[in-house]
Amino acid sequence: MSATAAEPWVGKPLKRKEDPRLIMGRARYIDDINVTGQLWASFVRSPEAHARIVSIDTAEAAAQPGVHAVYVGNDLDLEAPLPMAWVPPGVEVKNPPHWALAKDEVHHVGDPVALVIGSDRYAVVDAAQLVSVEYEPLPVVVDLEKAYEGGDLVHADLGTNQCHEWSLGGGDLEAGFNAAEVVVERRIVNHRTAGAAIEPRGVLADYRAGSLTLTSSTQVPHFLRLFLALQLGISEDRVRAIAPEVGGGFGSKLQIYGEEIALAWASRKLERPVKWVESRTEGMLATHHGRDQIAYAKIGATRDGKITAYHTKILQDLGAYLMLLTPTIPSLGAFVMSGVYDIPAVQTDIVGVFTNKMPTDAIRGAGRPEATHQIEMMIDQLADELGMDRLELRRKNFMTPESFPHETALGVVYDSGDYPKALDTLLEMADLDAIKAQAPAGKLRGVGYSTYTEICGLAPSRVTGPSGFGLQTGLWESAMVRVHITGAVTVYTGTSPHGQGLETTMAQIVAQRLGVDPQNVEVIHGDTGTGPQGLGTYGSRSTAVGGESVARATAKIVEKARQIVAHQLEASPEDIELIDGKFAVKGSPDKGMTIGEISGAAYIPENLPEGMEPGLEELAFYDPENFVFPFGAHGCVVEVDPDTGNVDVIKYAAVDDCGPAINPKIIDGQVHGGIVHAIGQALFERIHYDEDGQLVTGNFADYALPSAADVPSFDLDRTETPSPVNSLGVKGIGEAGTIAASPCITNAVIDALRPLGVTFINMPLGPQRVWEAIEEAKR
Amino acid sequence: MIPAEFDYVAPQSLDEALQALAQGGEDAKILAGGHSLIPLMKLRMSQPSLLVDLRQLQDLKSVNADNGQIRLGAMVTHHRVATGNFGLASAAAATIADQQVRNMGTIGGTLAHGDPASDMPAVLLALEGSVVIRGSSGEREVAANDLFEDFLTTAVGEGEILTEVRFPRLEGYGYGYEKFNRRQEDWAMVAVSALVKKAADGTCEDVRIGLTHMGSVPLRATAAEQALRGQPLTAESIASAASHAAEGTEPPADLNASQDYKRHLARVLTRRALTTASE
Predict the structure, then answer these.
(1) Other Cβ atoms within 10 Å of A151 Cβ, number
(2) How far apart are CA A327 and CA A581, in angstroms?
(3) Where is the FAD-binding PCMH-type domain (chain B) (predicted)?
(4) Does a structural domain hold residue A163?
(5) Which of A126, A644, A710 sits opposite B184 (nearest CB)?
């Protein structure tokens, strides 16, 4: 029997509990945290994209007043190079050693070569400029396609720039293309971007009395503790990792960074706390990037629009090294390569390629935005080729609502979905064609669509783990719920929210089940020393996996509460349910106890059932059976100035389905941010290295993050198709907007330019590129 | 922000400021809002030994708009220019970056800095305004035409302070300001200032066109001006004149805008700015 609350907290658009402290500057980020005796660190970074380190002279830096130590790569006696967590069975992944400080060779601009530690935050940066490094330049590999073909090598001893090959396919591809009457092929570029969290990274390492406490602006404190223990050779019980308030991550803090390891090592060596906070320039150089792939996509269909086969070959620019998940990112997209379409034969072939750039890794969506961008562009391109309405083509190939759970040709089982309904809802919301028809003189308007799904709730360990996909970890979550004697509740989650509003979402889940106010449910996260274990916040997993573990721990509380109430009121536990904020006897709502009264009875155990332990605190671990598959339909109108190439998004409407909403306001916020993130990639943002491997877009003047002034208001709606995977029925939402929106914008720009003869264009759609495409089409 | 070490003074008078500059030597810099200098210091591309902050100098915050001439103290903020009803200058100032920057940045600061991507240099050039420069040996007035010497190099010498900005109200002129950038708060990829005086017969009696970010200094589009002067202000003649807007320019290219694209933008924006100015 499930308890029902007097207040239906689940589904309410509550304001976020965490916002007052964030908005009013009361939150404590890493930059706010200082400890007695603390030293400061500064890293010396390579200005060369590829070079042999001939010599490093640290004497002048070390002699500066206040400088305590200067370390170079060979000083750091670590147990292992920085971690990479993917060992896919049967696949060779070449993994060149990647040390916290480069030892003999640097492989990208920003590669750290020395660490200066001293008593003054400013003096260590001054001293770092005095470290003299002699480099012998080596050939620089920048262009992805050239690197793939061979020529100069990033890692000479590997003998190739190709790191690995990985494929996922299902169905008879040859038969599928043989059956096709129309085949469309495109080269689709998904360029490199930065996570660009507003709070840069920062680390405070404090080793004392044989134990290490490391505070870091991270999304994954529990992984961090494990790897600190492994890298430094410290027993895991003596390592505590803390993620304080974290000002955004977008995947860029789902990482084990060399700076974290180096500071921990230095703190142990010096027996002093050591702190480092990244500058923005450093962040652009040395915090992992995302995307950066070129796909050669090929889609086949019959003349009447039935897709018969889809093949894509992806070159993934890995950058110079493999970081925690670097080579896995395109593979995450491969699981949903065919999107929302029922395609009988699908294959993705991936080649990871090294270049002399910062490594790529997970950035919001991680592989799935790339996959969605490909299929949604290819659908529009195919519709154009067939002369068919692109929505009709989509509908013709949608997986039908009746087919769920739907096993795709790849053997992936989509949990639930109703794609026609999402598209219908979108079309009811906004008449995009009418807006297009009202284009002012001299301007061109275009409509774009994206009907998407994604795979998230990263999870099911049996699929993702060592003998499956090959991640060397489980991906379960755990939660502990503690009801205090007053009836107030503390929830400990192993996830590590950093802007997602999970303190509110999780409080609503608990409040609903215990009949308390969410304001009295405190959610604690991000500290391996205070709560249960967990695996962090990324992959839109924190509600679908972490939230479910909270619900399960709460269910155990409810079960114990009912036994206590039944015992005290001389009723049967089966007859106790939550009515008007009380656990009461069914049919006699005035005969009941609040959760505070129950916890009072639990903590002053004078009258508990025979053999029952005192207290009211429960722990649950949860490992789902499957992923969850959010989906939706996005549509937009762009206005192009053909004289300048400028693109304005003038309307954006989105319908997203992440299952039953726990907090609609938070969902909307996540969708807003996600869409802006993807508009950023489509129109503005671009990490660019020149031919010498120098980063051209190294600050926010050149790396163009959009602001509120650059995007329209969004029209949002939802459908709610529950997932059968978890008891909440929820799917993820943090990445959905980003996954859906870049092809929506790109398709709209192509739609606008089609009258001028432009039929295809790759992101980023900056004005010069759009203008050049128009000029090209004129010739 | 971790800049190199520097000293800081905020003098109470212009004389004190000049004295501080003189004592600070060649590595002393004036802080007049700081929205260009401080980012450069943050990147350590600028490492001044001394910052002389003009924020306390109330005399440099005065606005005087009598007798058809506008005189603005160097420390007048972009926000005050934007909201001051000064025609072209206000229109341009309103597009500078965002509100926070307009609240801090000053007209004297941006002109003395001489960044060809900034809005106000080409505006002052089109207005045929001038600046007053004070040094230890006295005061001089420098025409806009002589102010901008090279990229980030102006006639404001070592130990001198730009104290006032002057430009005529230009009664009878229409104006247009066209700025093209990627994001709202970005510097101009290209911007065009246009001033047009219509004669009684509807022809162009006078025209002035300023180009932003089309060279190492702000420029006048003299060929386009010549092409329009005396002509009827029709769409055709404006388009024809605008086609000369980029003549002789060597605009600085970057990742987002090639020279060809910037020259094209200059022609498009000139046509638009002239059209607005002629209405």
Answers:
(1) 11
(2) 50
(3) 1-172
(4) no
(5) A710
